[in-house]
Amino acid sequence: MSILIRGGTVVNADREFRADVLCQDGKIIAVGEHLSAPADTEIIDASGQYVMPGGIDPHTHMNLPFMGTVTADDFFTGTAAGLAGGTTTIIDFVIPDPKQPLMDAYKTWRGWAEKSAGDYSFHVAVTWWDDSVHADMGTLVRDYGVNSFKHFMAYKNAIMADDEILVKSFSRALELGAMPTVHAENGELVFLLQQELLKKGITGPEAHPLSRPPMVEGEAANRAIAIANVLNTPVYIVHVSCIESLEAITRARSKGQRVFGEVLAGHLTIDDSVYRHPDFDFAAGHVMSPPFRSKEHQAALWQGLQGGNLHTTATDHCTFCDTQKAAGKSDFTKIPNGCGGVEDRMAVIWDAGVNSGKLTPSEFVKVTSTNAAQIFNIYPRKGAVAVGADADVVVWDPQGTRTISAKTQFAKGGFNVFEGRTVRGIPSHTISAGKLVFKQGELRAVQGAGRHVDRPAFSPIYDALGRMASQAAPKAVQR
Ligand code: URQ
Ligand code: ZN
Ligand code: ZN
Q1: Residue 436 has pLDDT above 50, yes or no
Q2: What is the C-alpha separation between 82 and 332, in angstroms, rounded?
Q3: Residues 133-157: pLDDT tens digits?
């Protein structure tokens, strides 16, 4: 069975052009004008629409055990919701408990992800350190297609990585040709501010942003960037939410340091007034870290995206329902941190970014797909409408509209931070691995159809002393 997408305008990161796209056996096999349709081909009329690479969300948490509960979306419902929004690949996280062998955690998460409807890959978090962690990082790069390791600088007494872990893990990542990534918040400061707020009797969700002011993020971003600078490793800062961390990235990049920034669709469009809403469920539904910030930060983040100091957009999709969030009814530090978005990211970024003139369609493709593919070394298999690429394609109707609501979403959790927002520019069709999985509102996601995506190691680079990093890990085994 083939699919011929006819009459559309192809948009890649580098250009827009009129062309038909022929998909067969899970791959794009032809891109050009007036393509003929082989027998047994489904034709999609894309006239007046854009034909873009399937979205890549480099930051999700499906089926995450966190803060005493487990997220509402598992790998099937979460990836299915992504397909409905035009996102065909997610990069999720294996998060070992401290002292849990990385390989054990990795195999557990791989088992959970078997039910995925769309393609997936994993960053692996380094939450503790000993020689076995050093060894497991090598195994994961060499044999399991992992090329990025996550470090939570927040979440003291849980999964927080201190400076010793950052230094040892970043160094190991350099040896292996892997990308260190960080959740940049100073966990010690957060812990102190949380205790002070509780002592003052400020226990509601309005305390959440007060316990994590922008400087708490800026300090950690600066520290991670400085460590990367001294060790000569690249570094990727996830969910950059504020001016302070954006400035740290901009400053480092202006001096030639290899720093990448990710921004969430939520942090680009939602401000901190949500925490002052009188309804607990509404305010708690927006509790995530880093928190939504005051309005000036959103404007700066858009400039960061436009100016090339922020590179990818993500969602940090980590959904909890109201009864789960209610765990923090009398103590905000117990509200499970996380919000959704995997289904809405692309439409929200198009509506707020392209319709406003901030982004061109090609820049939209860069920040919703191509940059993530290139930074995490799966381009051009992913992130391009090109012959030989995976047939992950979204047909985008720039005039189509949708009003986002938890009542109509496919994602679980029963809450949506973009509730009530009417967006213009929505997917009309999503093709994943050559299959039509979403068609004008009808979701045809298939449990287990998703595949794990190996991400090869990067070539070795010189360490801070000008020595070639030790023997690079052989390329990942394609399974
Ligand atoms: O910190 C993260 O990225 C995970 C635990 C999701 N929760 C959140 O508040 N961002
Ligand atoms: Zn985080
Ligand atoms: Zn996260």
Answers
A1: yes
A2: 29
A3: 999 999 999 999 999 999 999 999 9
Count of helix runs (H) and strand runs (E) in the chain = 15, 21
- Tallying the residues shown for the chain, one arrives at 479
Q: Ligand 3: distance of its center to the CA of 111 in Å? A: 20
Distance from Cα 228 to the centre of ligand 3, integer Å:
21
- What the block records as the tokens of 281 is 């469920």
In this predicted structure, what is the pLDDT of residue 156?
97
* Closest by Cα among 322, 424, 365, 367 to 58: 367
Report which residue type is found at 177. G
28 within 8 A of 392, measured Cβ to Cβ: no
pLDDT at position 459: 81
Per-residue model confidence (pLDDT) at position 421: 98
How far, in Å, are 114, 139, 320, 377 from residue 473 at the CA level?
26, 9, 38, 15
| Third-level CATH fold of 55-381+454-469 | TIM Barrel (3.20.20)
- What is the pTM (predicted TM-score) of this model? 0.97
- Confidence band for 458, pLDDT divided at 50, 70 and 90: very high
Please indicate whether residue 267, judged by its CB atom, sits closer than 6 Å to ligand 1.
no
Q: Are strands 119-125 and 65-66 parallel, antiparallel or unpaired?
A: unpaired
For residue 315, report the distance from its CA to the centre of ligand 3, in Å. 8
